[in-house]
Predict the 3D structure of the following.
Amino acid sequence: MDSPWRPELYSPSSSFELATYQVLDPELTRELATHPYNPEIWLNRAYTLHLIGFPELILGDTYKSRLIIEAALSLYSSPLSYSKVAFQTFSDKYYAMQGSNLT
């Protein structure tokens, strides 16, 4: 930064400045309460916050998603471990989708 930060100049952004007023879908927050370690839900909520115009909240949600992903990747140190995790994640989602199509 070129000069020190002056707190008297700070004003938080609001949805009224950036976009028309919209309400955040409460279902996204409920999903986070149910599955707080799912980075995809954090990213979905960040995207929704982007659409309604809250940049500070977007950064917070994307940062949480990043922390979750980095923590998961740190558990596996070899490239082969990454492949196993990716395959397991894909197969879990695939079979979950197949199960929902069977009913």
Observations:
- The helical segments are 15-18, 26-34, 39-52, 55-74, 79-102.
- The chain has a mean pLDDT of 75.
- Residues 26-102 form a domain with the Serine Threonine Protein Phosphatase 5, Tetratricopeptide repeat fold (CATH 1.25.40).
- The chain is about 70% helix and 0% strand.
